[in-house]
Design a protein that fits this description.
heterodimer; A: alpha+beta; Alpha-Beta Plaits; 7 helices; elongated; B: alpha+beta; 6 helices; 25% strand
């Protein structure tokens, strides 16, 4: 983790009673959804675009990280460009009473990058647990999957492997900005 | 794509915890032993080569607004056309072809869930294709900031 010399100083600043413009904060979120500017003083650039001060921009970003609105603040890698071209979505039909336990187990497996529960849509879609494996080739991903099945006794669980063939779009979520 | 050692270090160190201070790229450059200008130029280059989607925050979707994973079963010969129509709908941020009867998988976002449902209704009517709507019930692990295994890359 990287610290700036001035971080502690910032925290004391957040406690100062000063009302930050709600519209300014919304503008800041819109700007941040496009990414941090690549200029020597990016927070100052954001301040100029949003009508906030540089200090207010930095305080808001620190606060949003603490509150969990920003869950990760860093470089967002496009894995496919780097060569992670074997991207498998593995879906499972797990009995309801076990899905939480299995989900938590899978979450701790290093090669599983995403794992979540979703509703079944019967009769078309019987699967309620999703996990993603990002790999560099399909054989390796399938070998990882087989070891996972063997290790966790999932041989009898109905599942399906959906490799991606093509990305038509891949970008960050834009919740408050317009397309 | 092969990256040089410094680019790899930049990614290894800063997939999370970007410094929040007046000169964040200067702070990063000190940790890497290069100049601030070099950090900025490398980030620009990584973005232009499509290695980085962006520099900056990943918002927690459950707090940031509404989002939903959906899938449609498109006739194989029309898949590019259907994918293009999906991309034209508001708020689509991911859209992949996958090997299954449901062969197009996309994530749609909106400021709030009623609007999201409206946008999906409109899209479903336009496409006239079976659509699965699969909201998240519970996330057990959602983090694409995993360590890159540089050795395994082609």
């Amino acid at each position: 983790m990287s610290h700036c010399v001035s971080t502690d100083h910032l925290r004391t600043m957040t406690e100062e009673p000063r009302v930050v413009s709600a519209w300014g904060l919304l503008r800041l979120r819109k700007q941040l959804e496009q990414g941090l500017p690549l200029a020597a003083r990016p927070y100052k650039a954001l301040a100029e675009r949003t009508g906030l001060s540089e200090q207010e921009v930095m305080n808001a970003i620190i606060q949003w990280q603490e509150q969990g609105l920003i869950k990760r603040f860093g470089l967002v890698v496009k894995h496919r460009t780097l060569g992670y071209t074997a991207n498998a979505m593995v879906v499972w039909n797990i009995p309801d009473e076990q899905v939480q336990a299995v989900g938590k187990t899978m979450a701790d497996i290093p090669f599983i990058t995403l794992c979540y529960q979703r509703p079944r849509r019967l009769p078309d879609w019987p699967y309620n647990l999703f996990c993603m494996i990002h790999g560099t080739n399909r054989e390796r991903v399938l070998a990882q999957l087989n070891s996972l099945i063997a290790e966790h006794n999932l041989q009898d669980v109905q599942h399906s492997v959906l490799f991606s063939n093509k990305a038509y779009r891949q970008r960050g979520g834009r919740y408050v900005s317009h397309d | 794509m092969r990256l040089d050692h410094t680019d790899q270090q930049l990614i290894n160190h800063f997939q999370r915890h970007l410094p929040v201070c007046e000169r964040p790229y200067l702070e990063m450059s000190r940790q890497l032993g290069i100049s601030e200008q070099d950090v900025i130029e490398r980030l620009q280059s990584l973005q232009s080569r499509d290695v980085l989607g962006r520099v900056g925050p990943v918002f927690e979707h459950s707090q940031a607004g509404a989002s939903l994973l959906a899938a449609v079963a498109a006739p194989e010969e029309q898949i590019d056309l259907v994918a293009a129509r999906i991309n034209r709908a508001p708020g689509v941020n991911h859209n992949y072809a996958r090997q299954h009867t449901y062969n197009l998988w996309f994530v749609m976002t909106a400021p709030y869930s009623e609007l999201l449902e409206e946008h999906l209704d409109e899209l479903e009517q336009e496409l006239k294709l079976p659509m699965l709507r699969l909201p998240m019930v519970e996330g057990y692990h959602i983090d694409l900031g995993f360590d890159i295994d540089w050795e395994s890359l082609p």
